[in-house]
Amino acid sequence: MDPHPSRALVLASTSPRRRQLLAEAGYAFEVTSPRFEEPDDPLPHVTPMMHVESLAYYKARSVAGDYFQQTILSADTLAFHDDTLIGKPSDADDARAILTRLAGTSHQVITGVALLAPASGRRLLQHDVSVIHMRPLTTRQIDEYIDTGEWRGKAGAYGIQDHGDEFVERYEGSFSNIVGLPMELLGRMLANWGA
């Protein structure tokens, strides 16, 4: 199958941001929740880029039996700072610690993207990297943001598309990558997929 915007993809993701990005770009898609438990620790002996690509692939593969004849799209986004992968915070205290660590520094946002066609066994894994330069933050700013709850479900404990943009001095790279699905990369992947 060669997916084009006019043909339906299966998005294996619970992220409302990924759904929104695909819808705004005009893609036809259906959504399913992946049945994959993300590991607490990074995969051993792999780069951060390989790690997010692997997680995206395993998410797609987890629903392959239900969508055997379709093309499955999945993604995984993590922050990377001081040689440490940072995922979604487990609770408010974890979010506070993450934001305190990121404040006044730069970090990478890495998204792995997977396309999988179970019937043929075909797969394509790629990633995108953006760099975020954070402003210095006061304890009060962090606490006020924690109180909004917007940190929930977001790698790095903030959403640049929400009030978390106030923490960002500037960024380099794809904005949609930072949000959770690099649309420029996805467009190239789908073009190659259909070639």
Strand percentage: 25-35%
Rg over alpha carbons: 17 Å
Counting helices, strands and paired strands, the structural category is alpha/beta
* Biggest sheet overview: 7 strands, mixed
Nearest-integer average pLDDT: 91
Strands, count: 7
CATH topology: Maf protein
Unreliable stretches covering 5 or more consecutive residues: 1-6
* SSE series: EHEHEEHEEHEHH
Structurally, the number of domains stands at 1
Our measurement of the CA-to-CA distance between the termini, rounded to an integer number of angstroms, reads 11 Å
Q: What's the shape?
A: elongated
| Helix count from the secondary structure assignment | 6
Helical amount? 25-40%
Q: What CATH architecture label applies?
A: Alpha-Beta Complex
Q: State the CATH class.
A: Alpha Beta
What can you see in these coordinates?
The chain is an alpha/beta fold. It has a single domain (9-193), classed as Maf protein. Helices cover 31% and strands 26% of the residues. It is built from 6 helices and 7 strands. Strands 1, 2, 3, 4, 5, 6 and 7 form a 7-stranded mixed beta sheet that branches. Helix 3 (92-102) crosses helix 4 (139-148). The longest helix is centred in the first third of the chain and has 14 residues, at 48-61. It is elongated, with a radius of gyration of 17 Å.
